[in-house]
Amino acid sequence: MAELVLGSLGVVPLVGVAIKSYQSLSSKLKTFRHCSSTVMRVHKKLRVRRRVFENECHLLLRDCLNDDAAVQLMMEDLDHEAWRERRRDDDLRRLLKDNYDECTELVQDIVGVVHQLETGLGCFEVVKSKQQKDERLKDTWKRLGDGLRISFNKSSYETGLDDLQTANNDLKCLREQITQLQKPCKDLAIKRLATGALGWTDVRRAAKALYEALVGTWSCSQASHIQHFVKLFLETEKADGDVKMNIAILSHGYGGSPGQADLIQLQVRSRHMEWAPYLRLPLLSPDSGEERPRKRMKPVRFNEDYPKPRSAKAPIQGQCLAQPPVDSQKATDMGPHCLGHIDVKSEECYRHVFFASSGSSCKGFRPSTMEGGELIPMDAVCETAGGMFSTVDRLQMARSLVSVVLKFHATPWLGEAWRLQDLSFFHQGGQDLTRSFRTLHLGVEFDQKNLRQMCVGSTMEGVQRTTSTNRLSQVSEDERLFCGIENMALHCLGVALLQIDRLKKMEPEDVLGVRKMARLSSSLGPRYQEITQKCLRCDFGYGTDLSKTQLQKAVYESVAGTLESMMSSLGIDDDS
What is the value of pTM for the model shown? Predict the structure, then answer.
């Protein structure tokens, strides 16, 4: 009959019955513990089993019902009406799902074992029946002495205690699994790490080679162009041995309205190659037919078949790169949208093939002017507190910065000592910046007045990153060690994360001010504060050399993983 009653109860009221049963058994064992040393030992062991069971029930109810105050009241008062509320058990059933029946059976078994143990104590009731008024049960037991024979089954109690311990372990295991299953699967992005880690190195090498290729072959014959900016977008892709990058080229000149800029988008596919013996080919100057000593193009061969262009000279010679070549014969060799290629042999050998961009990185972002808020530097977040950037926007910005550092650190595009203002993005207005962040980019400026010097051999002259002077890049190694800067790129990442958090401009060289600010409570929460401090100290447990894959993985898992988890808790999925 008792089993039928228990079978009709839900898990929540059944847990209350089990706790009461434990209390009743423990009370009787405490009463009879002086009758036998064996009973005393059983009582001590049962107290541990009972406490473990109550703690597990408390955790199970708290995790599943998500009402800690109500659960606390229930555990303190076993007659509380909450034990009998149907909605409590309905909530538990909804969260336990397929585990509900197993949980019910497990608690029922515990109640059954406790009842059996309590029934076994009936043999001591005869002692209690002989107890005189105001006599302690212990004294009654001594008074009766050998005249009383009691049969106490020690082995059955030991078996029962073992069963209760096993049941507690099963309940703990079930409760932990249920708790884990309720958590969002935050490791999906981390599981893509193996591929991503390889991609970071490939992208970094290709980006560095692209920079060298542009510096070594850039020329512009249009006198009206006085300034050129090459924008390298964060979005990259590695496929079929190629690293696909997207760039935009802005040309400023005397023509048109003040502030006007021509903009063209290109996709670059870079492939690492083996070089055959090469022939130096003459290249023409942008403004004359005379040959100039300059970096030459090299014939190449690939490890695998690859379409080869017919051109042997620089495909961008004699005109601004912002004006696509019109030689359709070259285009047909590599595809209908191919504009040409650059072959460069320096530290590493690459072929960079240029295609008309499909606009994946900046589709819809073709500003006719660089004013009016369309091109926004990243440090603008520090000037718009409570304005256009929401908490989600700031977390997405921070997540993007991690990718920037992992992909482009130690390249001329980013540099070792960088600032938030070194990055920009295109924005068309409105409050939703998700699409705008896909245009996050780094910039290189080509100064027209120095291009002639470049053509006669000074290839790096006249080319600079579109950044401000950073005193931090000029400090000595001893000064960095004295300031506790273990890794400059990660220190600058920490400063950038701090700026996004505080909505306040900060200088990376103000190490003391940065460290003090980082110790204050974060507006984005303690987890954000923790990853900021880790970046500032390079505290990831894998040394300080960011070129090492282990440290890159640690930064990704610790910083990017935390940011993705924070966005996931806000209902935002990040695919960058």
Answer: 0.57
